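#lab-general

N.A. 3:47 PM
ok so I finally got the sequence cleaned up, no stray characters, all 405 residues accounted for. can someone with queue access submit it? mine expired

B.Y. 3:52 PM
send it over

N.A. 3:53 PM
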Amino acid sequence: MEGGRRGFLFTAIVTSGAGFLSAFAPNYLSLISLRFLVGIGLGGGPVLGSWFLEFVPAPTRGTWMVVFSAFWTVGTILEASLAWTVMPKFGWRWLLALSAIPSFLLLLFYAITPESPRFLCMKGRTTEAVDVLEKMARLNNVQLPSGRLVSDKNIELDEVSGSSESTTLLSGAEESDNLSEDRGSDFGGIKSVGKLLAPKLIRATLLLWMAFFGNAFAYYGIVLLTSELSNGNRICAKQDVESVNSTNASLYKNVFISSFAEIPGSFLSAMIVDRFGRKLSMASMLFTSCVFLVPLVFSRTDILTRISLFGARLCISASFTIVYIYAPEIYPTAVRTTGIGIASSVGRIGGILCPLVAVALVHSCQQTTAILLFELVIFLSGLAVSFFPFETKGCRLNDTEVDMN
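B.Y. 4:20 PM
back already:
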């Protein structure tokens, strides 16, 4: 693990650079390659959530993480507005170029972005950790508790060297060598991945992967169904196909309207996550999303489709927000970012498979089968959440491994 600050820089540079270059892609292959790089950059997004989580107090951690996640909703609405405005007049190149601007703006904040004190302590860099904590105390007009900051790394070195309180820990050169050796021992993150599947964490890890997969599959599926169901109904009913411009305008309008479902979803998750806990909040949102999709199994009129998908997206966005709160809380500092990153990657697999299912089934006039598949995935995700090992509401973040089973 390289720390949240480097993850911040990686995400900003790769996403903004590849996103902007996409606007100048000379052919389809280069466009796909550059968008692939954008996806890699976005894959570092969970690092930002894990980093932010370590700077907020436990009693209001859920609420603050909802506020943090709400900016995804703001971005979704702004992107839909931008597409609705730019695409008909200027085309996709201008849309991609303008969409890269927010990621470029992130680079302006890198110089003032602090590293996680927990990460610094874990690496034995206590002096840097104290500097960050002192700056935080000054900004909040409070005093740090008295005493000396001691990291787990220093404790381990004490035990190895057999030193007492009256003896020197290690010489600077020896400590530096030990820390360098430790940083190099986790080659490629293999050790961290192994810890995720160790007996103490394996149950939580596998259930979390199921929850991420289901949330991503359902979220992107509902976004796609917003346009695909209405298009599929016209095709299967053998109605006249609308003009391209009319169809595109309708698509942007539908996506723009449905995106507003995430606003009440954010408010709802903020109200319940710290009051009822992570598990109950997530499970209730997933099962309620299933209820909203049930009417589409029997009828898919335009009004019913919009209402059902609006409600389902509201619930799924709330659940997706809460799972990003729960995930960092169940892992110790040493594997927190790795755990969230891998869980998010499993979710991306769900996001990749979802368009293939949604588009293929709807276009083959099997809308009912598509809806039932989404119902099944969401329901199984709700069950996985119900079997999560324990509740994390109000708990402090773990710095060491505990048994999650």
